[in-house]
Amino acid sequence: MNTPIKTLQxxxxxxxxxxxxxxxxxxxxxxxxxxxxxxxxxxxGQASPRQCIKAFCLECNGWEEAAIRDCTATACPIWGLRxxxxxxxEEV
Length: 92
Ligand code: SF4
Prior knowledge:
By secondary structure, the chain is mainly α. It has a domain of 63 residues. It has 4 helices and no strands. Helix 1 runs antiparallel to helix 2. The mean pLDDT is 89. The chain binds iron/sulfur cluster. Iron/sulfur cluster binds next to helix 3.
């Protein structure tokens, strides 16, 4: 006897086509509205690798630019690429 295949009922997935992205973007909207533009670009696949790294570090380190600049997790694979690093002063 063949058992009918059940399909999952899914709700509409919204702007980004992914429930997890929708949930995360809602959090960004509520708590870090200044980062909405960055996350929208990332989730639409329109962000540069640099912008994706920035979004990742912001999530990782509590949305604090200073915390990212002072991040001590040197074993992190993207540590050397993290944003907000102090620029070396050029010697004259
Ligand atoms: S560099 Fe630091 S802030 Fe960025 S992802 Fe790695 S651990 Fe997190």
